[in-house]
Structures are given as structure tokens and as C-alpha cells.
């Protein structure tokens, strides 16, 4: 069994009634990997996750887990855990009983069950809350219960649906660390779904960017962040200035415009992050449409013949007033080359 | 200030209309006289005690109890899955189902009773008890569906999915997770159904035969022949029973949240 086929999705097509949500998806995931499915809502990431869990039967294609074809295995026999976005705790059961739920169904002996539940609660720091009802816990605590509830089942794969989206900023950082720790300690294979690139970049070993039911790019966070394969990915990870290339020139709303250097051969587009745009130098001219102070940097929105350009410069530089006309450059060597533009 | 005075007056009148008859019945039942009258003549508990000595009341009380309990249980057995399906799935003609299920509320009970008598009991020789049971089940069903549906609205489907992923079958998830989560609503529906069935007159009117009578029908029959305060005493006792049940339900369940 090759390394990336611990969990493999082969030519997976998923649909709700007749609406295709995911088309011919191929994806291989390593044992112990932490993978993010990243994309805007409606891209098929949640649908893909639900099919791995067995909550949605594929229209066609195969899902293999640890060497076995599980495509038709019912959800309750898959050894796949899922932490729901809303946590989905059982409101009528105590924290202890929530975590024990699956073990009781498995008829785990009382002594071992208590030990496993206690260990599970301990690993998420909730030992003291065993007797509480879910409604008496904060959102972050509820999520940790949901995590423990899935973890005590020792699933082969743990899926997490938008694990951080319901938490406030401070808790989010805490939970992120917590997830990483639990994953490293247990060595469990985790897949989480998110629409937030920051989350994906910070947490995942590997990111799968999805769009309209197809995979746009698979790569490490560094790859995705620095070398987006398409305009869509570039836009999604914060390249605000994205251009298609045509005959070695930038394609803009106002026609083709020369590059300030020569583009590498065989690429479909170029993308610049705001901080790679150089102000007060270069061949292009623009007018300041908007400016905002962001602490260490200052952001500008320029009205230019290339269309709107976003630039971000060190706040130490002298500022430009609204309406000022200035030169700028889009250095080709600082741009991310895009293999695909569409 | 005047509007406040006005609302106090209106409130008092409304309360009087609601509670007045009940107070009159209680007073009449404590009468020492021999006929049903208000104001009562003297004060005595003899009619309250007499209620327990009337043989037919005892029999019809048991009948009414059985009907109310079994009919409501049957209505819940049908109504819970119906509510669940209506809440969870896009049921074809879901609205129509909802309307049909609530039909017994809309159709006057006397017509339901007559229809059952004319088309089931007479031509098919249905047992009267069975017909009464069916009538009461149908009567309570709308309440069961309505109250249980209300408590199911807030129940997210992902807790069932969570249960399934932890090893439950679909049915297991329903029994272990859905039912316990809506047990307050179920109990509320049971109480409402029980009280509705127990106090039901029009449907039962046509479906009472020799030896098979519900308590309200029996009281009506008794009143036709004997005009003494024992009926008032029985009414008061029943009212206290209903009040007691609803009070306990409110106390322990927050009954009013469901109805």
C-alpha cells in the first residue's frame, strides 16, 4: 500500500438528487496526515466530507480506507469520526454520557469504558465537567466534548466540519493549538473543512483547494500560499492583484498593457500580493482612491489603467493623500506565476 | 391611568367568566339540599361522597380513563412518526397530510361520532369499545402532531447523524437521541390529549351503547333522570383532577412552552 492511499477517493462523483456537487474527484491521504479541504461555500468540500463519513452515498466512484473499499459500508460501521460544526452534542445526556455514547453501543466493559471516557475528557481538559449537561458549557467546551466523543472511538479518520468557525478569535487560536496537539499525540488522520485560508494554512499539513466540485490545487501550506496554481487559488489566498497574460502582456479591463519585465514562458497569468507592489517608482501611473493605516503597514487602493490595484507599504514611508497621482511597479520577479487562469 | 383601570376591569370580567362557572359548580356540589341549585342550600360533603357510591360512574370512569390513556398512546404512536417525517423530510403533499391530520379539530365532533356509527359500527358490526377507541385516537391525533412537531422544530438533524457515526442504526438514533430529546413535548402532548379525550362529549355521544359509556356521557344520562348535586360534585372532582395534572406538568415540564 503506497503512502498516500491510506484514505483514497477515486473518481468520486457526488450529487444531491440531480445536482452534481462534486465531479470525478481523486484524492489520496496519508496515514496520520492533517488535511484541509479549503474553498468557498458551495465548492463541494462539505459534501466530500459527508461522503467520507458515509452520510452521503456517492453517485459513482470508490472510497478506500486502510485497504478496504468502504464505498457501500454504512456510516455506523466505518470507523470514521465526525465533529460537527454545531457540535451536535446530545442535549439530554451529561458530558460523560455524551463521550461514552459510542462505547456503550460497542458494549465496552464498564471498567474500560470509564477509563476511556475519563482519558478522553482529560485529553481535552474537561475532566471536571463530566457531570454537566452540554447546555451548561461554553461553545469552546462543547466543541472539546464533541472532539473527545469522536476520539474515544479511536476512528481511523477524524473529520471536522469548520472546527473553528463558531468560536471567538481568542478561543480560535486556543482550539487550533489544541487540535494540533491532539492530532500529534494520537497520530490520527484528520481532515477538516474550512472556508478560511488562515485556518487552513495554520493547521494543515496539506491543503486541498476546491472550487465548484473540482480540486483546484493540492499542496503544502507554503505551496498554496506562495505558488498558487490558478487565479482562483491566488485570489483565495490573498493575491489581490491578479492578471491574465496574453501575448506576454497583462490583460486588463482597458486592453493589453506591457509588463515591466519579461514573463516566464508557458504561464497563463501573474499575481501580486499587495505588499509586492512597489510605489513611487516604475512605469505605471495611478491615483490614490483610498488609504488606510494598518499598524505596521499602510494600504492603498489605486485607480489605474490596469484597473484597481491594491498596494501595501511600510507605514514608515511618507503617506500619500487621496487623489494624489503616483508611479508604481508590478515587478515580474515578485509575482506568482499562474499555470491556469480560468 | 384610565387605560390601566379599564384593562383591570376587563381582566377581572374575563377571569370571572372563566373561573365563575367552576366556582358555581364547586359551590353547588357542596350543597346540603337534594337538587342541583345555586346558591347552595346549606353545606355538606354528602354529594361528594355519594359520587363514589354510584356504580355506573365507577364503570364509566374506568372506561373514560382507559379510552383517554389508550387513545392518547395510540395517537402518539401514530403522531410521533408523522411529526418526525413532516419535520425531517420533504414529504410529498406534506401540507395535505398536515391538514388531514388536523381534520378532527375542524370537523365537529358530533359528525365524527355519527360517521363512525353510521359507517363502521352499524354496517360492519364494529365493537362499540373499539369504535370509541378509534374515535378518541383520531380526536387526539391533531394535538399529538401539533405539540410534538413544535418540540421537533428545534431538534437539529445532525445529532442523529452524530449518533449514527458513533455506531447507532437510523432507528437506534431515533430511539436513543430523538425521543429522549423531545420527551418534554411528548409528555405535554400526552397530557393535552388525555384531558381532551377525557372531557370529550360529542364524539362519544353516538358511540355509547349498553354497558359502554364514557364518564361525561354517563353524567349527561344521570342528569336526565336524577337532578341531584352529585353531578356537580363529580364535575368539580374532575376539574380538580385536570387542574392538578396541568399544574404538575407546568411545574415540572414548563407545559405552557409546548402548547
From TrEMBL, chain A:
Claim: Cytoplasm is one of the keywords in the record: no
Membrane topology: Peripheral membrane protein
Keyword Hydrolase: no
Listed GO MF terms: ABC-type transporter activity; ATP binding; ATP hydrolysis activity
Highest taxon, organism lineage: Bacteria
Main location (coarse class): membrane
Domain ABC transporter: 7-237
Protein localization: Cell inner membrane
GO CC entries: ATP-binding cassette (ABC) transporter complex
A Pfam family annotated for this UniProt entry: ABC_tran
Keywords assigned: ATP-binding, Nucleotide-binding, Transport
Family listed: Belongs to the ABC transporter superfamily.
PANTHER family the record matches: SPERMIDINE/PUTRESCINE IMPORT ATP-BINDING PROTEIN POTA, SPERMIDINE_PUTRESCINE IMPORT ATP-BINDING PROTEIN POTA
Protein's name in the database: ABC transporter ATP-binding protein
Lineage, broadest ranks: Bacteria, Pseudomonadati, Pseudomonadota, Alphaproteobacteria, Hyphomicrobiales
From TrEMBL, chain B:
SUPFAM superfamilies associated with the record: MetI-like
Regions that span the bilayer: 61-87, 99-120, 126-145, 186-209, 229-249
UniProt entry keywords in alphabetical sequence: Cell inner membrane, Cell membrane, Membrane, Transmembrane, Transmembrane helix, Transport
GO cellular component: a single term: plasma membrane
Membrane-protein topology: Multi-pass membrane protein
Positions of the ABC transmembrane type-1 domain: 61-249
Gene3D superfamilies xref list: MetI-like (1.10.3720.10)
Subcellular location as annotated: Cell inner membrane
A Gene Ontology biological process term: transmembrane transport
Protein name: ABC transporter permease
Organism expressing this protein natively: Microvirga alba
Amino acid at each position: 500500500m503506497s503512502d498516500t492511499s491510506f484514505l483514497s477517493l477515486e473518481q468520486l462523483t457526488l450529487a444531491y438528487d440531480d445536482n452534481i456537487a462534486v465531479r470525478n474527484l481523486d484524492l489520496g491521504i496519508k496515514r496520520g496526515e492533517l488535511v484541509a479541504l479549503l474553498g468557498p461555500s458551495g465548492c463541494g468540500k462539505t459534501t466530500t466530507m459527508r461522503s467520507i463519513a458515509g452520510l452521503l452515498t456517492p453517485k459513482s466512484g470508490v472510497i478506500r480506507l486502510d485497504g478496504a473499499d468502504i464505498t457501500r459500508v454504512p456510516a455506523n460501521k466505518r470507523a470514521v469520526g465526525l465533529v460537527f460544526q454545531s457540535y451536535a452534542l446530545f442535549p439530554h445526556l451529561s458530558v460523560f454520557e455524551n463521550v461514552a455514547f459510542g462505547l456503550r453501543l460497542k458494549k465496552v466493559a464498564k471498567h474500560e469504558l470509564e477509563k476511556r471516557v475519563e482519558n478522553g475528557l482529560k485529553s481535552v481538559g474537561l475532566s471536571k465537567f463530566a457531570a454537566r449537561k452540554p447546555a451548561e458549557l461554553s461553545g469552546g467546551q462543547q466543541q472539546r466534548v464533541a472532539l473527545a466523543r469522536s476520539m474515544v472511538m479511536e476512528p481511523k479518520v477524524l473529520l471536522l466540519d469548520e472546527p473553528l468557525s463558531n468560536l471567538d478569535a481568542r478561543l480560535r487560536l486556543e482550539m487550533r493549538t489544541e487540535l494540533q496537539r491532539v492530532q500529534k499525540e494520537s497520530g490520527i488522520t484528520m481532515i477538516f473543512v474550512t472556508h478560511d485560508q488562515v485556518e487552513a494554512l495554520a493547521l494543515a499539513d496539506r491543503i486541498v483547494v476546491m472550487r465548484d466540485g473540482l480540486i483546484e490545487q493540492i499542496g503544502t501550506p507554503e505551496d498554496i500560499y506562495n505558488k498558487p496554481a490558478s487565479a482562483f487559488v491566488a485570489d483565495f489566498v490573498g493575491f489581490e492583484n491578479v492578471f491574465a497574460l496574453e501575448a506576454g502582456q497583462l490583460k486588463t479591463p482597458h486592453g493589453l498593457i506591457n509588463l515591466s519585465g519579461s514573463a516566464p514562458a508557458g504561464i497563463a497569468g501573474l499575481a501580486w500580493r499587495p505588499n509586492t507592489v512597489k510605489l513611487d517608482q516604475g512605469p505605471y501611473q495611478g491615483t490614490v482612491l483610498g488609504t488606510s493605516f494598518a499598524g505596521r503597514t499602510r494600504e492603498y487602493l489605486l485607480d489605474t489603467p490596469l484597473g484597481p490595484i491594491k498596494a501595501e507599504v511600510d507605514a514608515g514611508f511618507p503617506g500619500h493623500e487621496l487623489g494624489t497621482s503616483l508611479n508604481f511597479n508590478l515587478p515580474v520577479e515578485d509575482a506568482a506565476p499562474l499555470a491556469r487562469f480560468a | 391611568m384610565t387605560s390601566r383601570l379599564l384593562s383591570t376591569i376587563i381582566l377581572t370580567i374575563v377571569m370571572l367568566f372563566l373561573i365563575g362557572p367552576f366556582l358555581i359548580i364547586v359551590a353547588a356540589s357542596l350543597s346540603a339540599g337534594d337538587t342541583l341549585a345555586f346558591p347552595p342550600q346549606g353545606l355538606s360533603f354528602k354529594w361528594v361522597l355519594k359520587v363514589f357510591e354510584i356504580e355506573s360512574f365507577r364503570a364509566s370512569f374506568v372506561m373514560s380513563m382507559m379510552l383517554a390513556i389508550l387513545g392518547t398512546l395510540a395517537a402518539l404512536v401514530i403522531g410521533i412518526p408523522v411529526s418526525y417525517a413532516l419535520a425531517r423530510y420533504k414529504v410529498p403533499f406534506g401540507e395535505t397530510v398536515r391538514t388531514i391530520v388536523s381534520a378532527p379539530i375542524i370537523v365537529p365532533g358530533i359528525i365524527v361520532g355519527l360517521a363512525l356509527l353510521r359507517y363502521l359500527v352499524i354496517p360492519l358490526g364494529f365493537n362499540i369499545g373499539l369504535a370509541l377507541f378509534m374515535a378518541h385516537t383520531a380526536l387526539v391525533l391533531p394535538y399529538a402532531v401539533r405539540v410534538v412537531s413544535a418540540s421537533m422544530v428545534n431538534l437539529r438533524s445532525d445529532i442523529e447523524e452524530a449518533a449514527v457515526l458513533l455506531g447507532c442504526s437510523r432507528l437506534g438514533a431515533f430511539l436513543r437521541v430523538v425521543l429522549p430529546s423531545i420527551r418534554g413535548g411528548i409528555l405535554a402532548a400526552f397530557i393535552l390529549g388525555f384531558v381532551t379525550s377525557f372531557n370529550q362529549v360529542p364524539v362519544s355521544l353516538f358511540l355509547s351503547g349498553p354497558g359502554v359509556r364514557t364518564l361525561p356521557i354517563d353524567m349527561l344520562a344521570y342528569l336526565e333522570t336524577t337532578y341531584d348535586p352529585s353531578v356537580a360534585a363529580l364535575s368539580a372532582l374532575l376539574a380538580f383532577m385536570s387542574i392538578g395534572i396541568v399544574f404538575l406538568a407546568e411545574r415540572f415540564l414548563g407545559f405552557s412552552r409546548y402548547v
